[in-house]
Design a protein that fits this description.
single chain, alpha+beta, Structural Genomics Hypothetical 15.5 Kd Protein In mrcA-pckA Intergenic Region, Chain A, four-stranded antiparallel sheet, about 20% strand
């Protein structure tokens, strides 16, 4: 049996987490994994605040689904994509009504 590897979205950075046990919070695990990787220096030097911003903007996905900092992670291999542009799923900004004279 082979593992399903989701297609990586365009303009994104993928990190593969290989966990030996279930983890209850994604944010800490992801931050540590980003700091340990060597493929992307910007992601290696990411601050906790910038990572939070990616979560708030819906730019972190697990298997194509928007993740939260409190998302739990199962034991085994997990593919996490960090989108460098906001996904189409992000809620639209509210427009103010225009008054006509």
């Amino acid at each position: 049996m082979t593992d399903f590897i989701p297609k990586q979205p365009p303009r994104s950075f993928r990190i593969v987490l290989n966990l030996e046990r279930h983890e209850s919070r994604m944010d800490t695990i992801l931050l540590n994994a980003l700091k340990a990787q060597k493929e992307n220096l910007d992601m290696k030097n990411i601050s906790r605040g910038k990572l939070k911003e990616y979560f708030v903007n819906g730019q972190i996905e697990i298997k194509g689904q928007v993740a939260r900092p409190s998302s739990s992670l199962a034991k085994g291999v997990t593919y996490v994509d960090i989108l460098f542009n906001a996904p189409a799923k992000a809620p639209p900004k509210e427009k103010k009504p225009v008054k006509k004279d």
